[in-house]
Design goal:
Keywords: ATP-binding, Biotin, Ligase, Nucleotide-binding. Its EC number is 6.3.4.15. It catalyses: biotin + L-lysyl-[protein] + ATP = N(6)-biotinyl-L-lysyl-[protein] + AMP + diphosphate + H(+). By secondary structure, the chain is α+β, with helices and mostly antiparallel strands. The chain is built from eight helices and twelve strands. The strands form two sheets. The protein has a seven-stranded mixed sheet, sandwiched between helices. The chain starts with 18 loop residues before the first helix and ends in a 5-residue tail after the last strand.
Length: 304
C-alpha cells in the first residue's frame, strides 16, 4: 500500500466521499469490494438484507463483501430499534454484507470482533488521542467515554457451513454539538424516555480529536481493518480477538450496572470478555458471565 496522502482540509460544501482518494487509501482486498454510495435510503442494513435473502444459501453465494453507504438514512436504527440521528456529511453510515463460513452458532462475538477492528482502524487516523478510542460491551466504540460508533449485526440466513450477515456501522465524524442537541431534545420527549428509561452514552464525533475528520478517510480506515477482521473471524471465531478486545476495554476494573428493560439486573466490577464475547463481571456472589441480548451497560452511579 502506498504512503497515505495528506488529509485535505474539510470544507463546509465538500463533505461527500472522494472516490479517487478512497482508492488510494484502500488496501488490496478492500479495494476490490463493490462499494455503492447513495444520497438517501431507508436503511442500508435493510437494503443489503433483501439482497442476501435472494441469494442461494451456500458458502460461495457472495464472491466478496458488498458495501452500501448512504449519506442519509431515513429509517436507520441501532440496537433495540433505536433511531440513528445524523445530518448528511456528519456521520459515516454504511452496511457490509458478507457470507461467513461458519454456522450461526459459530458467530458468537462477531459484533465485538467488528468493534475491535474498528478501534484499530480508527487509531490509524491522525487523531490527537488514539488511546481514548476504546470499546464498550457489546456494540459500541467510545471516544473519551462518549459514543463514537454504533454496530448492528443482522443475520439473513444460515446453513451448517455458512451464515449470511449484514453489519451496519454508524460513525459520528463531524457535528458533535448539533448531534448532542438533537439527542437531548429526543430524550426530553416523555415518550422517548419511556421507551429508553436508561440513558445511553452521550454522542461525540471524531472531529473532537481530529479537526480534519472526513468521511473518505474514515471509510478507508474502517474497511481496511474489517477486511482482515472478517477473514480472521471466519477462520477462528472470536477467540482470536479476545485479548485485543480486552486490551481496548473502556470499563475494565470499573464498577458497572447492567439493565434489562430499564430494571437493574446486575452490579459489579467489569473484568473483560471470555472467548465467546460474554461479559465477565465480579459480583458479591462471584464472577458471572453476561450474554448480549436486550441488556444495557452503564457505569455505576451514572456515566456512559
Amino acid at each position: 500500500m502506498n504512503a497515505t496522502p495528506p488529509t485535505p482540509a474539510p470544507r463546509a460544501d465538500d463533505w461527500r466521499i472522494d472516490r479517487d482518494r478512497a482508492v488510494t487509501l484502500f488496501g488490496p482486498a478492500a479495494n476490490d469490494w463493490p462499494i455503492e454510495i447513495v444520497e438517501e435510503t431507508g436503511s442500508t442494513n435493510a437494503d443489503l438484507m433483501a439482497r442476501l435473502k435472494a441469494l442461494p444459501h451456500r458458502t460461495n453465494a457472495l464472491a466478496r463483501p458488498l458495501v452500501r453507504v448512504a449519506y442519509l438514512q431515513t429509517a436507520g436504527r441501532g440496537r433495540r430499534g433505536r433511531s440513528w440521528v445524523a445530518q448528511p456529511g456528519d456521520a459515516l453510515l454504511f452496511s457490509l454484507a458478507c457470507v461467513i463460513p461458519r454456522p450461526i452458532e459459530g458467530l458468537a462475538g462477531l459484533s465485538l470482533a467488528v468493534g475491535s477492528a474498528l478501534v484499530d482502524g480508527l487509531r490509524t487516523l491522525p487523531v490527537s488521542a488514539p488511546g481514548q478510542i476504546a470499546l464498550k460491551w457489546p456494540n459500541d466504540v467510545l471516544l473519551e467515554g462518549d459514543k463514537l460508533v454504533g454496530i448492528l449485526v443482522e443475520t439473513a440466513w444460515s446453513t451448517p457451513d455458512a451464515t449470511a450477515v449484514v453489519i451496519g456501522i454508524g460513525t459520528n465524524v463531524r457535528g458533535a454539538d448539533a448531534l448532542a442537541a438533537k439527542v437531548e431534545a429526543l430524550n426530553a420527549d416523555p415518550a422517548a424516555q419511556q421507551a429508553a428509561p436508561v440513558p445511553g452514552a452521550a454522542p461525540t464525533a471524531l472531529s473532537r480529536v481530529w479537526p480534519g475528520a472526513n468521511l473518505t478517510d474514515v471509510l478507508a480506515a474502517e474497511l481496511n481493518a474489517l477486511e482482515d477482521a472478517l477473514a480472521r473471524f471466519g477462520a477462528n471465531g472470536f477467540a482470536s480477538f479476545q485479548a485485543r478486545w480486552n486490551a481496548c476495554h473502556a470499563y475494565a476494573g470499573r464498577e458497572i450496572a447492567l439493565y434489562e428493560q430499564g430494571a437493574e439486573l446486575m452490579r459489579g466490577i467489569a473484568v473483560g470478555v471470555d472467548e465467546n464475547g460474554q461479559l465477565l463481571v465480579d459480583t458479591p456472589n462471584g464472577r458471572e458471565s453476561v450474554t448480549t441480548g436486550d441488556v444495557s451497560l452503564r457505569l455505576a452511579g451514572g456515566g456512559a
